[in-house]
Amino acid sequence: YRNREGVAVLATQPQDSQDIVWAYDFIRSERPKFATDKLRSMVGTATKEEISDFKKLSFQVATFNGIFSYRKASDLVERSPYIIIDIDDLTSTEEARRVQRQIMYDRHVQAVLSFVSPKGRGVKGVLLLPEWCRDKEFKMQFQLIQQYIAFEHGINIDSSGSDVCRACFLPHDPECMINTELLTL
Q1: Over the chain, what is the mean pLDDT?
Q2: What pLDDT shows up at residue 107?
Q3: Which candidate, 126, 113, 6, places its Cα nearest to that of 56?
Q4: For the chain, how big is the Rg over CA atoms in Å?
Q5: How far apart are CA 114 and CA 26, in angstroms?
Q6: Distance CA 80, CA 142 (A)
Q7: Which of 156, 127, 138, 135 is nearest to 64 (CA)?
Q8: Is the pLDDT of residue 185 over 70?
Q9: What does pTM read for this prediction?
């Protein structure tokens, strides 16, 4: 929706609580295809603000890090066993697919879900929190995983993911990958 000033904003109150399998099915479905295709056609011609507005108004979002009564850290109801990572600014969808496979098949971070981002030049990964960082606070968990991915794969994870209530836009990606053996919810 748009606020009084006409700026697109994400809803802060959740509509529903779903699981990883629902997200996987949604991403692979045709439902987000129009918005994803439109957004990708805007890349290179639209402003950053126009793209941001379009995403906020056109995509479903998920908060994989937990369940919230409102989408802010102080309203976390239940922390999930997952953490979302966001890898941006790759050179192409082909590079994004390569990085997606790297993340999915890394045995130390155990990706549960991975897909190419709405703009087509990034990867989203939903990871099962590794045992070696489960007892840490969220920001520390994020930093440890960020450092591991940078060291092991030479890939930079977007630091905005260090916010526990970070929303993730759900695009159309028929090649979305899931590892059902790691599902805990």
Answers
A1: 92
A2: 83
A3: 6
A4: 16
A5: 13
A6: 13
A7: 127
A8: no
A9: 0.91
